[in-house]
Every structure is written in structure tokens, then in C-alpha cells.
Design goal:
With 942 residues, this protein is of the alpha/beta class. The chain is built from 32 helices and 26 strands. It is elongated. Bound molecules: adenosine monophosphate. Adenosine monophosphate binds next to loops. Its cofactor is thiamine diphosphate.
Length: 942
């Protein structure tokens, strides 16, 4: 082949020869010499045999352009009336060709059950184009149609179009505006009429994988009848599809594939693709406990990792753990993939592939799908294109497709918003499934965009095996009852075509069953001794016990150097007036003439972490500047709009500092960062809400992943959430980050909830999150007005020497014996309390800040108050209404500590806060101010 290629280089007369040969191959692959056919087959643009050569897409494109140009030069008849009529018809024929490309999918045979109500598509009728049967034998130019001929009789053109667009694959791609992509797709389908000639070897392999898919379900059905497993029966083609995706992408140089999928078919994928041991699965069916710690999860939520071998080398597979909230795993997978790509410096997404599997009802119904598509080409989120598979069983639990499940014909229409091509493919035609799969992965690798395969199938046993589907879908299930399985249909076809005989078919079934009986692995590409360099080593982060203490100090001199660097903006960056003032102030902070404020302390935390080798990734709406204009980590040049990010210029070869203003999403955006953080243990990954309350748009991420992922799945996560919180009269939607919800989710030291009140505290808190080995989510209720509070400043020494204080003891100069009252509080209300005390000269009241509400620091709190031996009253003061904030979740800890200092109090704890309220905050400034005054007063006097 090497020799052949050298002699057939695309120049001079060789080019013409190859072009001719290639055209011949396009119209009839059998008509070219064997050697050439094999070569053309091996081009990734054409669906060849199992031995796929190195991708040579550019060469294929060159062929394609040559072929197209030659056609465009073909003469058009002119002159006579007859010729003009011919020309008019020629135009109509070209329109007809385009009509098939636009709407052929509506006529395609994509539903294995034949239940799809196929509308008549007028554009595909001859009469619509003012053509008739009388024109069938007339020869027309084929224009851009890829059938390997410049002209052909109309009947032949129509036959090619029908075969390409109206058989088992319904292609939707004409919504794409990029001509190159469209032409590429036309070529891929038209040149083989959507049905490449696969070799017997390839087809036997497909049958073997189908047999595995069916065999596993049959095995489980007979062993555990009626037990829920969300079986794949009806959609078995999914297994050969994923097998091909992995093998082909491995051949492209992909080294990791991250898969997200819901329940249906998950066990099948685990065993037949990822190589989970069948005996382990059986143990789970038998109810044996599989994990040592935590609550565990049902078997069809479990993730898995393994390595498989492909023609291009070993590939690491990671199936993400997922909750029953179906589509939410999609952005988690994207985050995980992006993290792996960043780790590999794979900015194009060539080495890590996201594969997301949807259900038809969920993909059309759930909003996070839209959010994730929206992020697919954004700077901070793109992953070089995702391959989406819809296991489309044409019903959502008991909700029928028509009328109730969606408003448009296809469940995949959402993908058109990012101009993804969509291939609807009949699950009972595995050859077509294979072709659609190959085009999908090739498209992804070529154009780095999302692509969708809509595998149209059915669920033979209803929503799950404990369910009776005929009660709600009677007609569908009558049909299914008498419908042969995809494997049966395919095996029959292969026997009829002489590819193999009945005995071989039976041999495949028996062989698979035998493997299962013997507990053998049945994923035939599984690597038994995986190369662990392909994934992150988490062992340094495992097994750490919770401790609040951590040495987060940092060398003062180096910090000064870093701080100076961070204020260094090149002369040619024309800085906007207010931003220039921020940096001017920061320079004064470095010099020591101004106290360090929140924004500078926070950015210094990032700088010191980077200096110590930890990457930092920060995202959120308006995060570069900060919603409240405190950060200004990105400086925008007023002259040309370019940006300067000081944290990216600290030292040569420093770890990445990435900061992105996110798109306006909470659910998708936070889930993405969860995925990123669970894949990147050595970095600080933080997501910032615009206002803290908006995080409730991502409640599912908080409930299902952040708070419970470790106990359910053993997956550690060091994600940090920055949630602006504070009662400042801004109304019900901009005051509360819903502290009470986070505290309610806290148990088993699952996460940290902190409310820092000084710049030094945020500095040490952010550093603590990365410097120590423990990886736990960190929820920070971050400030708003406190960002500029004159008393909320720290010194460089506070930063360099200190550490995070879970409790800040009283800062006044009180005589301990004189203290009768202690006020506990968290957050900015401390400053209101301190100023009230100063104004009223109260020396009998201590104010203690609890800066970490969970895990609750009882010991530190005790240390802060144990010298107050004459204590008479303990009060908790909060800005939030009584039914919100920390009151109900944290009071038992405070009572317990107070009781240790003075058991005579009987554990009594006073409450000074707003009255119970349905809304988080008052909408009127006057009401807010009166409430605030009253709750501070009550803390001292109530
Ligand atoms: P993955 O690349 O996601 O398949 O992960 C490879 C291996 O790393 C897994 O099998 C786990 O043992 C481990 N691992 C991955 N992510 C985590 C995590 N977030 N917490 C703990 N261990 C992990």
C-alpha cells in the first residue's frame, strides 16, 4: 500500500487516474481492483472493514473536491425551446435532490415496530417539482449528488436518493449552515447510499455483540424474573454501536472515553462493554454489599472504570455514576472530560471523548439538556464535540410519544440549536446502525462538534421488569409480542445471505451463555492489566480523616513578590478608571499603607496556590470581574478589548489559572464543575453564583451529587461553591443563599459549610481546601457589602502567618469574669453587633463568630467561651428568618457547648433574628432596616 500511495500521489496524471478510479469506486466499489478497493475502504470517510487505517480525512476531502469541481464544469444545454424546458427540468431535479436531503428522513423506515405515522411529504413527490413519470428515463445532470456520475436517468437519481435517505437511516443535517460540514455529510451518506458493503467478518462481529446484548438480558431474566434491571431488550443494537464507537475512536487516537447514561441498558453496557465481572453483578442481584463505607446505591446507578484494547491502542473507559435524575449526568460527563483534556493539554479534544446516552422522553423534556448543548462550543466548557446516543424506545415510562411527550416530531430536535447532525436509525438494522455510528464519530473528530444518533427501538418488557406495559400502551405491546428480536432478525439475514450458518449462530448463543455460567469476562476487548497512566491517581487523597486544622501559612516575602506581580499591568493595557483604582489600592495594600480587602486576599489565595503547584479554575456568571465588582481578576484593555489576567503571569511554566464568565446557567454550569472537580484532585475548582439564591436552580446537583456523591459512590470531590449571601435590603431574591438547605443536607462530615468574615479568613479557607489531602465539597457563603466594609480588612501578616479559624473568639478587650452574655453569630451581622456594642459601651457581652457551621467546631467554640465562668445568657443571632439560616440545624451544638460552660443555664439558647417568614427577606428597605435594628437590639437585650 505504501508503494501504491507513493505512485498515486495527487499530482499530474496520477491525480487524474486516481480520481477516475475513485469515481468508479463511488458508483460501484466492486469495479476497481482489489488493492484499490481495500485502500478506499480504509479511508475513514468510507465505511470499511475492521482493519481501519490511520485517518486520512484530508486526502478524502481532496478526492471530493476534485470530483465536485469536475461536475460543476459540466455544460448545460441552451438555445432551443426544447433545451430551455430541459434546463428548467434540470433545475427541478436539483431541487428534488435537495428535497430528499431536507426531508427524506420523514419517509425513512426508521421505526422497527412500524408504528410511526409517516406523513406524506409533498416535497418528495415528482408532481411537487413539476416532474412526472414521463421524465423517468430522461438523463439529467446529478449536480452535487454523490453517485459517481455526472448525469443519470431520473429514475436512477431517485433510486439513489430513496436508498440514501429513505431506508433505515433518517438523516437530518440540512439545518447546518456550514457548507463544508453539509457537503461532507452528503458525501458520506450518498456515496454508499447509506449502506456500505460490510465484510462478513465485520457483520459476524456485530452479530456476536448483539448476541452478547441479548444473552445477558436472557440470563438475568431467567435467573431473576421480575427483578428491576431496566433491560435493553428491544434496543440491543446499542451494544454493537458503543463497541464500534470505542474501537473507532481508539483508532483515531482517543485515549479516554467518558460515558454518561441513565438506567436502560446500563447493566448490559457494564458487563458487555466495560467488562464488569458477571459474578460481581450477580452478587449485586443477590443483594450482597459491595462497598465498605457509606450508603451505597442501586446497581443501575453504579459507575465503573476499565481499559479496553483498540486498533489504535489502549483506551480508558469511565462510566459516570448517575442518579435517577436522568439528564443531569450529561454536564457532569462534560466537566469530567474537559478536566481530562486539560490535564492532557488536549485543547482540540482529540484524546478524550464524551459519550452521552439519553432516553427519548428525557432528552426532549429536561432543561439541562439545552444547557449542556449550549455550553458545547463555549471557551470554558467545550470538549471537542460529544457523541449523543438516544435509546429511543418511543415511550416515556407510560407517557405516549404523540401528544403528551413533546411538541415536535423528533425527541432530538433540541440538538438543532447547536446545529448538530442527527441520524435516526432503525435499531433492527444493525448494518445501518454501524454506518450511522461510524459517520457520527468521524464527524466528531473532523468538525469537533456534537452529533446525535437516535437509535429507534422499543422496550420489550416495559419501563422495567416489575411493570406491565400493556395496560397503558396496548397497541404497541401487541406489536412487540409478535416482533422478533434484533438479533433474531439480523441472524436470519446473515444466514440468508450466506455470511454464516445456523450452527454458527447457535454457537454464538451457547458460547456466551457458557461464559456467563463460568463467570468469565464477556467484554472481549477488556485489558486485564490496565495501564494506570491513562487516568488520575487518587490514592494521595483517600483515607483522610476530617480535621479543621491545616497549616495554610505562606512565606511572607514570596507573598509580597506575588502580590507585586499581581498588580503589574503592562503599560500598553489601557485600564478603565475604576479598575485602575482597584489596582492602585492593591499596590498600597502590598506596601502596607492600606489594609488588605476581600478581593485582594481572595486573589492572593489563588496566587499562592498556583505558586505551590495547584491549578485554579474559577467559573460563574460575571466571575472575571465579580458580581459586586470586587475581583477584577481579568483586566479589559480599553483600547482594543484584549484582556490581561495577572494571575496567568506569576512565573514561567506555572500551573493554569483559568477564569471564565459562564453562560447564564446554574444547573448545567454547577454540574460541569462537579464533574471537573471529581476528576481533578490537585486543583482548586470553584463555582460562583451571581447571587447565592440562584444556586437553587442547581438543587439537583447539590442534592444528588455534591452532598451525597461520596457516600453513595465513594467519589471524592473538592468542589468549592461561592454563594453571595447577606441581608442588605435587596429583597427576597438577592439576600439568602439558603444556608438552611445546605445545613439540612449535612451529615457524616459530607461537606463543609463556612461563612468567613475577614479577608484573612477567605484566604486561609480557600487554601485549606487544596493544601490538605482531604477532598470534601466546600460551601462558602460569601459576602456582598462586606467586600468593602471598612472594618473587614486584614494585614499581609494575617495572611502569611495565620490559618483558618473555625471560630473567631471575641475581639473586644473584655474582662472574662465580667462577661454575662455571649452572642454567637455567623457572617456580616457580626459587624452590626460589634458596632452596636461599641456605641453602647457594653462590656458584659462577648461576640463569638462561628465561621464554620459544618462540621460544627464544638471544641473551638468551647475554647472561645470557657473562660466566661459567670455566663448567664447565650444568644444566637442571625439575619435570616427563624425558619431559615442556621437556627434549627445548628442550635443543638451551641446548647451543648454552652451547657459545658454553665450547666445552670439548662441548655437554654436565646434567638435573635427575623420572625418566621415564607419569603427569605422583606421587599422594602424600610422594613428591612427596622428588622435589622430590632434583631441586633434583641441580641444584647432579649
Ligand atoms: P476514572 O478515570 O474516573 O475511571 O477513575 C479511575 C479510578 O480513579 C477509579 O476507578 C477510582 O478508583 C479513582 N477515582 C476516580 N475519581 C475518583 C474520585 N472522585 N474519588 C475517588 N477516587 C476516584
Amino acid at each position: 500500500m505504501e508503494l501504491m500511495w507513493r505512485t498515486s500521489h495527487m499530482s499530474g496524471s496520477n491525480a487524474h487516474y486516481v480520481e477516475e478510479l475513485y469515481e468508479q469506486y463511488l458508483s460501484d466499489p466492486q469495479s476497481v481492483p482489489d488493492e484499490w478497493r481495500q485502500y478506499f475502504d480504509s479511508l475513514p470517510g468510507y465505511d470499511g472493514g475492521p482493519s481501519r487505517d490511520v485517518p486520512l480525512a484530508p486526502i478524502r476531502d481532496q478526492f471530493y473536491h476534485l470530483a465536485r469541481d469536475r461536475r460543476s464544469l459540466a455544460p448545460v444545454a441552451s438555445g432551443t425551446a426544447e433545451n430551455e424546458e430541459t434546463n428548467r427540468k434540470q433545475v427541478r431535479v436539483l431541487q428534488l435532490i435537495n428535497a430528499y436531503r431536507f426531508r427524506g428522513h420523514q419517509k425513512a423506515n426508521i421505526d422497527p415496530l412500524g408504528l410511526r405515522i409517516a406523513e406524506t411529504v409533498p416535497d418528495l413527490e415528482l408532481s411537487f417539482h413539476q416532474l412526472s413519470d414521463a421524465d423517468m428515463d430522461t438523463e439529467f445532470q446529478t449536480g452535487s449528488l454523490f453517485i459517481g456520475k455526472d448525469s443519470a436517468p431520473l429514475k436512477e437519481i431517485i433510486q439513489a436518493l430513496e436508498q440514501t435517505y429513505c431506508r433505515s437511516i433518517g438523516c437530518e443535517f440540512m439545518h447546518i449552515v456550514n457548507t463544508e460540514e453539509k457537503r461532507w455529510l452528503e458525501q458520506r451518506f450518498e456515496s454508499v447510499r447509506s449502506r456500505p458493503d460490510y465484510s462478513a467478518e465485520v457483520r459476524k462481529h456485530v452479530l456476536e455483540r448483539l448476541t452478547a446484548a441479548e444473552g445477558l438480558e436472557n440470563y438475568l431474566a431467567s435467573r431473576y424474573p421480575g427483578t428491576k434491571r431496566f433491560g435493553l431488550e428491544g434496543g440491543e443494537s446499542f451494544i454493537p454501536m458503543v463497541d464500534e464507537l470505542i474501537q473507532r475512536s481508539g483508532n483515531y487516537g482517543v485515549r479516554e472515553v467518558v460515558i454518561g447514561m441513565a438506567h436502560r441498558g446500563r447493566l448490559n453496557l457494564l458487563v458487555n462493554i466495560l467488562g464488569k465481572s458477571p459474578s460481581e453483578l450477580i452478587d449485586e442481584f443477590d443483594g450482597k454489599k459491595m462497598i465498605e463505607h457509606g450508603s451505597g446505591d442501586v446497581k443501575y446507578h453504579q459507575g465503573f472504570s476499565s481499559n479496553v484494547m483498540t486498533p489504535g491502542g489502549e483506551v480508558h473507559l469511565a462510566l459516570a455514576f448517575n442518579p435517577s435524575h436522568l439528564e443531569i449526568v450529561m454536564p457532569v460527563v462534560e466537566g469530567s472530560v474537559r478536566a481530562r483534556q486539560d490535564r492532557r493539554d488536549d485543547s482540540e479534544g482529540d484524546q478524550v471523548l464524551p459519550l452521552v446516552v439519553h432516553g427519548d422522553a428525557a432528552v426532549a423534556g429536561q432543561g439541562v439538556v439545552m444547557e449542556t448543548f449550549q455550553m458545547s462550543q463555549l471557551r470554558g466548557y467545550k470538549t471537542g464535540g460529544t457523541v449523543h446516543i438516544v435509546i429511543n424506545n418511543q415511550v416515556g415510562f407510560t407517557t405516549s410519544r404523540q401528544d403528551d411527550a413533546r411538541s415536535t416530531e423528533y425527541c432530538t430536535d433540541i440538538a438543532k440549536m447547536v446545529q448538530s447532525p442527527i441520524f435516526h436509525v432503525n435499531g433492527d438494522d444493525p448494518d445501518a446502525v454501524l454506518h450511522a455510528t461510524q459517520v457520527a464519530i468521524d464527524y466528531r473528530q473532523q468538525f469537533k462538534k456534537d452529533v446525535v444518533i437516535d437509535l429507534i427501538c422499543y422496550r420489550r418488557r416495559g419501563h422495567n421488569e416489575a411493570d406491565e406495559p400493556s395496560g397503558t400502551q396496548p397497541l404497541m405491546y401487541q406489536k412487540i409480542k409478535s416482533h422478533d428480536s434484533s438479533r433474531t432478525i439480523y441472524a436470519r439475514r446473515l444466514v440468508e445471505e450466506g455470511v454464516l450458518d445456523e450452527d454458527e449462530v447457535k454457537g454464538l448463543i451457547d458460547g456466551y451463555r457458557e461464559d456467563l455460567d463460568n463467570g468469565n469476562h464477556v467484554a472481549n476487548a477488556l485489558v486485564q492489566e490496565p495501564n494506570s497512566n491513562l487516568f488520575v491517581d487518587w490514592t494521595p487523597y483517600l483515607g483522610h480523616r476530617w480535621t479543621g486544622e491545616s497549616d495554610t501559612s505562606f512565606d511572607l516575602k514570596r507573598m509580597q513578590e506575588l502580590a507585586t506581580k499581581m498588580c503589574d499591568i503592562p503599560d500598553d493595557v489601557d485600564t478603565q478608571r475604576q479598575v485602575a483604582k482597584v489596582y492602585e489600592d492593591r499596590r498600597k495594600m502590598v506596601a502596607g499603607s492600606l489594609g488588605i480587602n476581600w478581593g485582594f486576599a481572595e486573589t492572593l489565595a489563588y496566587a499562592t496556590l498556583i505558586d505551590q503547584g495547584h491549578p485554579v479554575r474559577l467559573t460563574g456568571q460575571d466571575t472575571g470581574r465579580g458580581t459586586f465588582s470586587h475581583r477584577h481578576a481579568v483586566v479589559h484593555n480599553q483600547k482594543d478589548g484584549s484582556i490581561w489576567t495577572p494571575l496567568c503571569h506569576l512565573k514561567p511554566n506555572q500551573p493554569d489559572f483559568t477564569i471564565y464568565d459562564s453562560f447564564l446557567s446554574e444547573e448545567g454550569a454547577m454540574a460541569f464543575e462537579y464533574g471537573y472537580a471529581t476528576t481533578t484532585p490537585n486543583a482548586l475548582i470553584a463555582w460562583e453564583a451571581q447571587f447565592g439564591d440562584f444556586a437553587n436552580g442547581a438543587q439537583v446537583v447539590i442534592d444528588q451529587f455534591i452532598s451525597s456523591g461520596e457516600t453513595k459512590w465513594g467519589r471524592l470531590c473538592g468542589l468549592t461553591l461561592l454563594l453571595p449571601h447577606g441581608y442588605e435590603g435587596q429583597g427576597p431574591e438577592h439576600s439568602s443563599a439558603r444556608l438552611e438547605r445546605f445545613l439540612q443536607l449535612c451529615a457524616e462530615e459530607n461537606m463543609q459549610v463556612c461563612v468567613p468574615t475577614t479577608p484573612a479568613q477567605i484566604f486561609h479557607l480557600l487554601r485549606r481546601q487544596v493544601i490538605r489531602g482531604l477532598r470534601k465539597p466546600l460551601i462558602i457563603l460569601s459576602p456582598k457589602s462586606l467586600l468593602r466594609h471598612k472594618d473587614a480588612t486584614s494585614s499581609l501578616e494575617d495572611l502569611s502567618d495565620g490559618r483558618f479559624q473555625m471560630v473567631i473568639p471575641d475581639q473586644g478587650k473584655l474582662e472574662a469574669e465580667q462577661v454575662k452574655r455571649v452572642i454567637f453569630c455567623s457572617g456580616k451581622v457580626y459587624y452590626d453587633l460589634a458596632s452596636w456594642r461599641a456605641e453602647n459601651e457594653r462590656s458584659d457581652t462577648a461576640i463569638i463568630r462561628i465561621e464554620q457551621l459544618y462540621p460544627f467546631p464544638e471544641e473551638s467554640l468551647l475554647a472561645a467561651i470557657e473562660s466566661y465562668t459567670n455566663l448567664e445568657r447565650v444568644v444566637w443571632c442571625q439575619e435570616e428568618p427563624k425558619n431559615q439560616g442556621a437556627w434549627y440545624q445548628s442550635q443543638h451544638h451551641m446548647r451543648k457547648v454552652a451547657d459545658q460552660v454553665n450547666p445552670g443555664l439548662g441548655g437554654e439558647l436565646g434567638f435573635a433574628g427575623r420572625a418566621e417568614s415564607a419569603a427569605p427577606a422583606a421587599g422594602y428597605m424600610a422594613v428591612h432596616s427596622e428588622q435589622q435594628r430590632s434583631l441586633v437590639d434583641k441580641a444584647f437585650n432579649g
